[in-house]
Design goal:
Elements: H1 2-13, H2 18-36, H3 40-57, H4 64-84, H5 89-111, H6 116-146, H7 151-169, H8 178-189, H9 198-219, H10 222-242, H11 251-276, H12 282-315
Helix pairs in contact: 1-2, 1-3, 2-3, 3-4, 4-6, 5-6, 5-7, 6-7, 7-8, 7-9, 8-9, 9-10, 10-12, 11-12
Length: 320
């Protein structure tokens, strides 16, 4: 640890060789991690020590790679410390969600800073947050399928959905829809494992629907409104299924009837919005129109297929 410390000190106080000393310090810090990786008792100390030195070095090495190494060491330090605590799988997921939230919060704070270094840090925090959130999502699905009744799993799911939604609201480059699309993807995936438990599945799906409605109010886009309506319809379908609709005899007839009723209601709401000329939610009006067309097309197609299949079976005496 002495060598990287001395090199960092030289970079701090000896201006003529600042850049060279910082680069050599970076190499020494990487070698330090390689030397301590097989010694758990010193690995955490090496990671924390390297993170602190890299924070200093990035003041002089204003490059993306130095920031990536700095944050990589810092995040690795956190996860290594958590591994020492022997957390349960659900607590690991909750920790990952909280770390993701913190990364995006710091990114949000740094995005208001106009300096180049702060901008580089903000971009790197953003990338690491996406990586951690994806890993956490994968682990959350795995844990949810095994520990569906764990309270920590429900909390993790809700916080993760809120976190990705919070990221989509943050300032970003114009026409960059990745945060919005990513949040929609997470909102669609996270509630799925909990659907095996009626109450918990309803809670997660209801929260996802509410967040999508809020997204629609913020972005005021037709495609987002279209998806929000889809989330609400999915919530309605899940509630009806859990209340026994899928177990009744000839359940597909009831589903077709329900789809027809929903289509009629969608058209009625669309007509009401169009009649009262509520321009502030025109995006919902257009989305309702598209959703009505989609539902009616699917319903008619399904009825036609069922009718053709029934006629075919009757004509070929399959029921005798």
């Amino acid at each position: 640890m002495i060598v990287p410390s001395l090199l960092t000190a030289i970079a701090t106080w000896y201006l003529p060789r600042r850049k060279l000393a910082s680069e050599l310090s970076l190499i020494a810090i990487c070698l330090l991690q390689a030397l301590t990786i097989h010694f758990p008792e010193t690995q955490l100390l090496g990671l924390v020590f390297g993170t602190v030195l890299m924070i200093i070095n990035t003041q002089y090495l204003r490059h993306l790679y130095s920031v990536i190494i700095t944050l990589g060491l810092g995040i690795t330090s956190i996860f290594f410390y958590l591994s020492v605590l022997n957390l349960s799988p659900s607590l690991w997921v909750l920790s990952g969600v909280i770390i993701t939230l913190l990364l995006w919060f710091i990114r949000h704070v740094l995005s208001d800073n106009i300096s180049d270094l702060a901008s580089t840090y903000a971009q790197t925090f953003d990338v690491y947050a996406y990586i951690v959130s994806l890993v956490t999502l994968t682990r959350l699905i795995d844990v949810s399928l095994v520990y569906t009744s764990a309270t920590n799993t429900l909390i993790s799911s809700i916080v993760l959905m809120g976190t990705v939604t919070y990221r989509s609201w943050q300032p970003h480059i114009s026409n960059n829809r990745i945060p919005l699309l990513y949040s929609i993807l997470i909102l669609a995936i996270v509630p799925i494992p909990a659907l095996s438990l009626p109450l918990w599945g309803w809670i997660e799906l209801a929260i996802a629907t509410i967040l999508m409605v809020v997204q629609t109010q913020i972005f005021k886009q037709v495609d987002v409104a279209f998806i929000s309506i889809g989330f609400f319809l999915e919530f309605l379908v899940v509630v009806l299924e859990d209340n026994g609709l899928k177990y009744v005899e000839h359940f597909w007839i009831y589903w077709l009837l329900l789809a027809t009723i929903i289509t009629i209601l969608v058209w009625i709401i669309y007509h009401a919005l169009n009649y009262f000329q509520i321009h502030s939610i025109d995006y919902y009006k257009k989305a309702l129109n598209l959703r009505g067309l989609t539902l009616s097309t699917l319903t008619v197609t399904t009825i036609s297929i069922c009718r053709l299949a029934t006629d075919y079976l009757l004509n070929n005496d399959f029921f005798y």
